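Design a sequence for this backbone.
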């Protein structure tokens, strides 16, 4: 599978799409295009209720939340993924297209989330443990590991409603329904054509949005058809457009560390470090080069400028970095229903999305390189204090002539067809089949730097000697202020192309109806079978790791899943309903893994008086290991099934005795400094038969109150208790900095301590280095022998963890009328009372509630509340969004001298409150003719431009681009504003 971006240009695509939208809108001004000239219009009879397989039944024992298309429109948020990020029960520390410069594997496009997709993370249990359905059907897996469903590919205009079941539901749906279920119900019918145009902007800069969508229904007496087209684009958001990063990584104005003073001694012009100090990140600078040096000029020692404070030139490390990519998306959707004969109905839908993201990912900071004596640009009479023991010159400089870039693309397809047959009485048989596929690709353009073969940058600094003998790489003068030529940039930069294809086939049959009556009330029953085939494979092609060309497959993994399920709804008298459900599911994979699981669920509703309902449920749930987690075939690049040594990019406090430091960075034993140590990253899949399903047990109790005596009042409260065992954990690249910070702060502890092999034996290190998955050394090729290894990070998957979580969901709303004005207030939130994790069996549970974690532990309270009003053509909504305060126990703070220091006391992270406003005006109520059915809306989100709370997670300790807020709970995009025009005929 080859990655291809040879499609229409952006301008041509926009023009073609907008032309089609306008033509369709013109045609449908004639109502005859919307339906036949007949009063007889076919109406769908099936109402989807998420959480039960019984038609027409309400969910018994569990709480549900429904988000309508109007709710989406009023929010002013264009993408459904961004909208769900604001839902209190959806904690963002899972898969999200985060506005964060440091992209973790499952966060941004730099890792396993290769196409920049968005997932859902109910209850903070992770996207793995949230089942995402589209029209009640499964969707193909996304990401390199296939461990989430990408909801950003759904066209907003096609969404009828979103139903959220906030309870375990494997007894109904099978694997993955641990934290809950999110079911996107797409349009199957519409009454009138609808055109939507929207334009928006982020007021701090960037993020310009445009959306055009069109819905075309065609209805007739025995069926209906609905067609949807949607185009969406958004401009990139540069990091330096936000105040948090506008002055670089000097965070003293926020009470944080001045990282350029201690760890980011890089500038547009070259710094020369003192010799044998590591020559990387925070080494002391001994001299600076002049600001005007020709491309072929050889400097003398007299030309150099003495550095002050050991810092030299600095730069804004966020220059050239986008915190949100440029996005362009095309989506098409169609659904059809046709009554073939009385009692026999054909239905189907098809969906296609193409989405492309483009972003700049910053300028290149050569790390750990030295100018060799064999270079034609070597300074012959340089002060010996500026030389390493091998005679090379340690230096730093930013290559800012061409930013590194990342382009991603995804093609998502889905096709469903089925039959619905009235068997007898109220019994209905439904058979449906779905085929869905997602083709994801990513192209990164970056220097051919430190790798596992010939290092292009090293050879450009040394000439054709030693390991570079026989090469003809153009020499690079790092001291020159002239830009690199285009030829040099093409020679020094390469690309990595990664493509993954995920497929799903699902065939299911279900029959449901009334079994019999008890005291005049129907006992309902549903049963059925479900069969799935899931497959995934990939291909990579790269020339960025020091080899002329690396290419090869990520071998295909495939498995079958078969399940049998049943559900019965029993009314007990007039006040009690009891639901019993169970599902047995088996998995059989081509790579040898086999497992099975049975999950029961019991739900009870008790309604002693009308309008007051008590409910409760108990059940078990599970999720099967994602397929790619069980594939351990050697793969050609880091990030897959590979192992490699990092000698200089992982650090800890120099005065720590937990590991043996290698002295490349920092001085071992010195307090207030950070020192490097040699690490083996052992990443990839666990292998066939190693993992077993993650299991969960869930209890809920709740009450709903909707009294007839107070019309418009609705109150709900739910308590939940979840215990997860055999939890599948994986160290992701974006989490490693936080994990190591926690490791040192807790004297060798932390939630992932069991995945770290500290000070391994030479035999343990050699076993990995000599294995088929070992690639080599990333960074300077020193301190990389088995004897040098201070830690092995087992960045694979393990059933090592357990989790206990308890809390409350609450909702309240009250609508009333005051004269000619309709008014309403509302509140919705999730309050956690317990969130504890166990890193491995036998260890103590650790309280993670309200504690910052790089892998996204939840805060105690998230809530939305506000009010709404409407009168005549006007309507408005104000929403207050609240994220609770919490604390960081392993953050960096300025020490007594200002140097970065791991905090010894928890640092408070303030609560965050933002306000959104929506105002709409129905032009049709004031004007006749063409404006009939036309509404204009204004949305301003984060009205007062409240900045995210500051925290320093410490990534600046071992790289150049520190993070300055928690993207799991906050965003730094700031205020956004949008105008929307809708027209219905």
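Sequence:
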């Amino acid at each position: 599978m080859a990655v291809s971006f040879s499609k229409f240009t952006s301008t041509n695509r926009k023009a073609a799409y907008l032309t089609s939208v306008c033509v369709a809108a013109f045609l449908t001004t004639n109502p005859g295009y919307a339906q036949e000239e007949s009063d007889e219009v076919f109406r769908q009879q099936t109402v989807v209720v998420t959480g039960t397989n019984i038609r027409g039944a309400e969910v018994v024992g569990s709480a549900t939340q429904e988000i309508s298309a109007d709710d989406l429109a009023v929010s002013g948020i264009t993408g459904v993924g961004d909208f769900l990020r604001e839902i209190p029960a959806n904690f963002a520390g899972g898969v999200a297209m985060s506005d964060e410069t440091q992209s973790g594997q499952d966060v941004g496009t730099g890792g396993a989330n290769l196409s920049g997709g968005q997932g859902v993370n109910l209850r903070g249990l992770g996207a793995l443990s949230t089942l995402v359905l589209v029209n009640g059907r499964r969707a193909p897996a996304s990401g390199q590991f296939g461990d989430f469903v990408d909801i950003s590919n759904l066209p907003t205009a096609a969404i009828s409603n979103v139903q959220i079941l906030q309870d375990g539901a494997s007894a109904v749906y099978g694997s993955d329904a641990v934290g809950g279920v999110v079911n996107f119900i797409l349009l199957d019918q519409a009454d009138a054509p609808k055109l939507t145009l929207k334009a928006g902007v982020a007021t701090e800069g960037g993020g310009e949005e445009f959306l055009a969508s069109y819905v075309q229904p065609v209805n007739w007496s025995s069926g209906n058809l609905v067609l949807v087209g949607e185009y969406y684009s958004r401009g990139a958001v540069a990091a330096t457009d936000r105040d948090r990063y506008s002055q670089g990584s000097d965070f003293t104005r926020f009470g944080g560390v001045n990282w350029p003073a201690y760890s980011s001694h890089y500038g547009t012009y070259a710094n020369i470090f003192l010799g044998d100090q590591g020559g990387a990140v925070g080494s002391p600078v001994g001299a600076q080069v002049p600001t005007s040096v020709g491309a072929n000029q050889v400097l003398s020692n007299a030309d150099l400028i003495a550095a002050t404070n050991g810092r030299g030139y600095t730069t804004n490390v966020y220059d050239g970095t986008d915190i949100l990519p440029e996005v362009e998306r095309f989506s098409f959707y169609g659904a059809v229903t046709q009554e073939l004969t009385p009692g026999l109905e054909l239905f189907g839908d098809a969906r296609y999305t193409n989405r492309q993201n483009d972003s700049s990912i910053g300028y290149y900071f050569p790390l750990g390189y030295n100018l060799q004596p064999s270079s034609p640009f070597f300074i012959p009479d340089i002060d010996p204090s500026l030389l390493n023991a091998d005679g090379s010159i340690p230096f730093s400089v930013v290559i800012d002539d061409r930013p590194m870039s990342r382009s991603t693309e995804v093609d998502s397809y889905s096709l469903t067809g089925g039959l619905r047959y009235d068997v007898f009485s109220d019994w209905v048989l439904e058979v449906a089949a779905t085929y869905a596929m997602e083709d994801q690709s990513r192209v990164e353009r970056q220097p051919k730097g430190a790798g596992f073969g010939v290092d292009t940058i090293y050879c450009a600094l040394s000439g054709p000697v030693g390991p570079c003998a026989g090469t003809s790489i153009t020499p690079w003068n790092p001291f020159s202020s002239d830009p690199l030529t285009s030829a040099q940039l093409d020679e020094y930069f390469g690309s990595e192309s990664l493509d993954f294809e995920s497929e799903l086939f699902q065939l299911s049959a279900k029959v449901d109806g009334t079994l019999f009556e008890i005291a005049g009330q129907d006992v309902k029953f549903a049963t059925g079978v479900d069969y799935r085939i899931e497959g995934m494979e990939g291909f990579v092609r790269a020339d960025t790791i020091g080899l002329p060309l690396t290419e090869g497959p990520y071998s295909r993994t495939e498995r079958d899943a078969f399940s049998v399920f049943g559900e019965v709804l029993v009314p007990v008298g007039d006040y009690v309903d009891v639901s019993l459900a169970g599902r047995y599911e088996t998995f059989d994979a081509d790579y040898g893994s086999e497992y099975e699981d049975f999950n029961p669920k019991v739900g009870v509703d008790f309604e002693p008086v009308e309008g007051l309902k008590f409910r409760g449920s108990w059940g078990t749930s599970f999720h099967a290991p994602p397929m790619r987690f069980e594939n351990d075939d050697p793969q050609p690049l880091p990030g897959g099934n590979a192992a490699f040594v990092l000698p200089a990019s992982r650090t800890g406090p120099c005065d720590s005795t937990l590991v043996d430091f290698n002295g490349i960075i920092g001085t071992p034993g010195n307090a207030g400094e950070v020192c490097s140590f040699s690490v083996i990253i052992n990443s990839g899949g666990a292998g066939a038969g190693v993992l077993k399903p993650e299991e969960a047990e869930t209890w809920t109790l709740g009450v709903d109150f909707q009294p007839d005596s107070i019309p418009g009042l609705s109150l709900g409260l739910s308590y939940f208790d979840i215990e997860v065992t055999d939890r599948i954990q994986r160290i992701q690249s974006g989490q490693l900095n936080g994990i190591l910070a926690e490791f040192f702060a807790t004297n060798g502890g932390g939630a992932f301590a069991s995945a770290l092999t500290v000070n391994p034996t030479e035999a343990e290190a050699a076993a990995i280095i000599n294995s088929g998955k070992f690639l080599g050394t990333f960074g300077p090729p020193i301190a990389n022998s088995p004897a040098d290894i201070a830690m092995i990070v087992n960045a694979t998957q393990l059933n090592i963890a357990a989790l206990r979580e308890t809390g409350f969901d609450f909702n309240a709303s009250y609508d009333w009328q005051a004269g000619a004005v309709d008014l309403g207030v509302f509140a919705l939130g999730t309050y956690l009372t317990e969130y504890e994790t166990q890193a491995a069996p036998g260890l103590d549970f650790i309280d993670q509630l309200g504690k910052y974690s790089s892998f996204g532990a939840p805060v105690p309270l998230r809530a939305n509340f506000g009010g709404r009003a409407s009168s005549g053509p006007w309507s408005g909504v104000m929403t207050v969004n609240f994220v609770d305060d919490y604390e960081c126990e392993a953050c960096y703070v300025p020490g007594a001298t200002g140097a970065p220091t791991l905090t010894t006391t928890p640092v408070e992270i303030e609560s965050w409150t933002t306000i959104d406003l929506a105002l709409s005006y129905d032009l049709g109520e004031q004007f006749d003719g063409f404006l009939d059915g036309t509404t204009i809306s204004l949305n301003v989100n984060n009205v007062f431009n409240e900045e995210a709370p500051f925290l320093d997670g410490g990534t600046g300790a071992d790289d150049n681009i520190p993070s300055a807020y928690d993207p799991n709970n906050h965003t730094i995009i700031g205020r956004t504003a949008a105008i929307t025009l809708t027209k219905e005929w």
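The chain is about 10% helix and 45% strand.
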